[in-house]
Amino acid sequence: MIRFEHFESILFLLAIPLTLLVFWWYQVWKKKALESFANQRFSSILIQDYSRWKQPIKYLLFATSIFFLTLGLSNPQMGTKLEEVKRKGVDLMIAIDLSNSMLAEDIKPNRLQNSKRAISRLLERLRNDRIGLVVFGGEAYTQLPLTTDYGAAKMFLRTIDTDIIPVQGTDIGKAIRLAKKSFDPESPTSKSIIVITDGENHEEEAIEAATEASAESIVVHTIGMGTTKGAPIPLYRGGRNVGYRKDNEGNSVVSSLNENTLIQIAQAGGGQFVRATNSGSGLDLIFDEIERMEQAEFGTKVYSDYEDRFQYFIGIGLFFLLLEILVFERKNRFIAGLNLFGKNEQ
Known about the structure:
This protein is 39% helix and 25% strand. The protein has 2 domains: 2-75 and 309-334, no CATH class; 83-301, Rossmann fold (3-Layer(aba) Sandwich), CATH 3.40.50. Helix 6 runs parallel beside helix 7. The strands form 4 sheets. It has a 6-stranded mixed sheet, with helices on both faces. Strands 1-2-13 form a 3-stranded antiparallel sheet. The chain has a two-stranded antiparallel sheet with strand order 8-11. By secondary structure, it is an alpha/beta fold. It is built from 11 helices and 13 strands.
């Protein structure tokens, strides 16, 4: 397992394209300056000892040096031992709707972005709980298995969008059943599923799936994203809004929150229903319910005894920097003086 102690130092890698730009500009300027000073024949005499191919090599060595020195500054560390750590918490699976209707903007900036922000805030409040992510539309997929690595959870959260679901629709039942399978049935931890959706369920299995989960002591909460008034579903191409989705008759499709379905799902799952608004997602209320759940002890395997590895990268970086210094721009006089074909200049 590798981690970077000072990950912010990676930003120094931006210096590589910057130095490339400076190098290119300097080469162009030098060529123009030489052409303005002397004609081509005279300039070739002036710079006959100058090697054109050594400049790119010097830059390549310099850029490689920056790359390894930057890695060294970030201090890569390697975990040398995997051990089990005992923690107390609950297991939490979040199922987030990625159907196109989640792009509706009745909750700003839109339903999906509001959902992702709410989950991100939840991650900041978690301590020893395990969390996982399920994404769903017409099908459901496990995006992140149960983990205590909240950094990884935030990384996966940033990547989710409506484009990653190949089958459109809103099958909440499949999402609940997949989330239920993600739990370890032998684990004594309290278990909960939070479904974040606009409730436009196109299947009838959601209430049945929530009832099945409740029978296995899994609490199902629902958060409704959107308003009962609804909003049209925008269409984007190349990141630009090009209009709104229309039905077969040419009318804009309006997506509205289906509260009744989400209330019934929460009741069947023994949980709570909360409607999100522009002022808040309601996730805090559900988190309070989760905190009141009984916390059980569980074991989590983590890497320990991290050892610094910066010295190797610093050493490699200094080696390439030394090579760059030792490479001169002038031609090697011995090589330049070789007459391999036996021709004499007149």
